[in-house]
């Protein structure tokens, strides 16, 4: 306990080996002692338990600036009444008491003489304990309420995704759409003798379709990205070569009623570039429009009963986003080569072999008639997707939003509880809103820059703003630690977003480490201590 006394209207500290003038309290320190005596009802003498370690402190002094003569401190009251004195200056005599001018000085007890009775001012523990619990619940409520602006940002992401889909649909209409490659068919028109309801003889016209019994498809897809406003859409040009055999039976030409032809085995003709050709017996035949489909007329001399008719087919077509294949119950071998580095293989069958590199990929499917005997309209293919576009990545980052907010607000509350600082609820709300605004910044910037740069800029802006704000209300080096921790947390979440696997494990381990750190710093804190007495 350090004794202070008032003599001739001046306050002095009772520090040995110093003159009375050196021990004089000035520049706010004297006003603080006057105010304590006045509000506590003490006479002109007071004893203060001064330490650099908190023990339910009544008053907290935080260093603002320091020079060769002394240091200036801000004053925070933890008593049942506030203090009008907010700034004090303390001279270098403090070195004999505390060894230096510490960053924070705690006045844990105040003792003085009141009507010849020795009285000690102690904290109102029950009131303080209930106040801390209420403050903690309020912080949790703030974190929950901050999910409202998070949900608003998620709604905005859905709107932007819908607009992006609209742009993709428009480009699909003008470019060529989704391309589905089927099995070539040799078509032989014929008639069947029948009778009508009146018993008269009639001829019913039909088409005998002979699917390729074994088909090999080789595709070279050159993928590029089209830009419409701020949106990117992957499209491709595919050089498709097909080869196989048509197996005819003895009655293939019976009752023929028209020209034999081969159909072009794709679902849409809009993306075709140039004129497709089919080669049979070394001769090429071009396709032409007949009704609503493209046909290549084949001379009769190529159609031989009980034989295998070899053919090859080549064409070039534009497509968008996906390239699919439908085997339709035959042996089907497909080789796809592309410059796209992030394919997504989908459908009823995955590639038998694949090789994906930064320069592109090669994939091979081998599907037999046995594989598709019980499958109706089976298909497979590749999706030329853009790896985790900005909307997907922003949505993924927002999954950590509540955890991020609760960690930062809990850290501030923990510092407030340990150091007995007074942090206003408004400051908690503003901090939380800044964390929510990060996601809006990330969404808007990522529409113009890559997601990595957008994340870096948004995180730097948010961390810088919060760093200045932390220093404004903490007024200590703890603000710098908070700023650094916020930046590290943003960096760690970005690392989780880039991990294709193991993200859950790393996140869980990080949370465990954070919990251990909190347990370490709170192991000796009697924040919720139920004891009513002070040793």
Give me the secondary-structure topology.
Elements: E1 2-7, E2 10-13, H1 29-40, E3 45-51, E4 59-66, E5 70-77, E6 87-91, H2 94-98, E7 104-114, E8 117-121, H3 125-145, H4 147-175, E9 179-181, E10 185-195, E11 201-228, E12 231-247, E13 260-263, E14 272-280, E15 283-286, E16 288-290, E17 293-298, E18 308-320, E19 322-325, E20 331-338, E21 344-347, E22 353-357, E23 360-367, E24 380-383, H5 390-398, H6 401-419, H7 425-446, H8 451-474, H9 478-498, H10 503-521
Parallel strand pairs: 9-19, 11-20
Antiparallel strand pairs: 1-2, 1-3, 3-7, 4-5, 4-7, 5-6, 7-8, 10-11, 10-13, 11-12, 12-18, 13-17, 14-15, 14-18, 16-17, 19-24, 20-23, 21-24, 22-23
Helix pairs in contact: 3-6, 3-7, 4-5, 4-7, 5-7, 6-7, 7-8, 8-9, 9-10
How would you sum up this structure, described in words?
With 535 residues, the protein is of the alpha+beta class. The protein folds into three domains: 2-122, no CATH class; 129-158 and 391-521, no CATH class; 178-387, Immunoglobulin-like (Sandwich). The protein is built from ten helices and 24 strands. The strands form three sheets. Strands 10, 11, 12, 13, 14, 15, 16, 17, 18, 20, 22 and 23 form a twelve-stranded mixed sheet that branches. Strands 1, 2, 3, 4, 5, 6, 7 and 8 form an eight-stranded antiparallel sheet that branches. The longest helix is centred in the first third of the chain and has 29 residues, at 147-175. The chain is rod-shaped and about 135 Å long. It starts with a strand and ends in a 14-residue tail after the last helix. 26% of the residues are buried. Mean pLDDT is 80; it is low at 114-127 and 526-535.
